[in-house]
Amino acid sequence: MNGPLPPATEAAAVTLRIDGALATITFDSPASRNAMGGQFNQDLAAALAQLVAATGVRVAVIRAKGKMFCPGANLGWLQPDVPGAEVRINEVLRTLNPLLGKLRAAPMIVVAAVHGAVAGGGLGLMNMADLVIAADDTRFNTAYTRIGATPDLGATWWLPRLMGERRALELLLLADGFDAARAHALGLVNFVAPAAGFEAEVEALLQRLLAAPPKALAAVKRLVYQAHDTDLCTQLQAERHAIVAAATQLEFHEGVRALVEKRPARF
């Protein structure tokens, strides 16, 4: 299905649009700074469920309208004097956590394009992506300990893998803010682009991925992620099976032929 999918409400806080091989999840609640809570959480879960079930999507991008990508949870939604905060948190995580796992296992390559502010649960939403591009004026913060909370949405799983345990503990325990340059140095983001030309840089990255061989990209994603929990001999076997399978694909034939003929490959 191409074009915007029917939203849960007329004013959806998160939308999904599928245009051929490209899917776009957009956080579209700028009035609340795209903070998590209430309708945002419901619409996000619906969009993710539709995305992981979609066929034919090769590249997905997660982006946001307004001044911020996502600053974490809406504090009004977390208010401890409104009964049931623990129930609300539990329910949203019971819904979102399985979807995050499915997105990580999906063959599509997921890009997060972040700007403004990324904090708390916003970091978890960013970490759903395989690649991250940030505007150079983006500010980051884990934020959890500032409100006496513990991390969620995979923060304690992703951060040690991306930057090591001590760096992860520094960010999570002290909750100091940091900029896009440090996020890049820590391995939290792949690319930093000037804010003025951010959209053009995002589009260029998406087009590069859309032009790449989709089966090969999906196999690379699978191999890299499974390597965390695999011994060397098992991983070497997995790589052997993957490259032998790739050699039977039209993608491989076209890639080699294009290299020999000194022309761009057409995947």
Oligomeric state of shown chains: single chain
Mean of residue pLDDT values:
93
Number of strands: 10
The CATH class of the largest domain, by name, is Alpha Beta
The name of the CATH superfamily of the largest domain reads 2-enoyl-CoA Hydratase, Chain A, domain 1
What is the helix/strand order? EEEHEHHEEHEEHHEHEHHHH
Number of domains: 2
CATH fold assignment of the largest domain: 2-enoyl-CoA Hydratase, Chain A, domain 1
What profile does the largest beta sheet have? 7 strands, mixed
Shape verdict: globular
Sequence of strands across the biggest β-sheet: 1-2-3-4-5-7-10
Can you count the helices? Answer: 11
Question: Given the helix and strand composition, which structural class is it?
Answer: alpha/beta
What percent of residues adopt helix (DSSP H or I)?
Answer: 40-55%
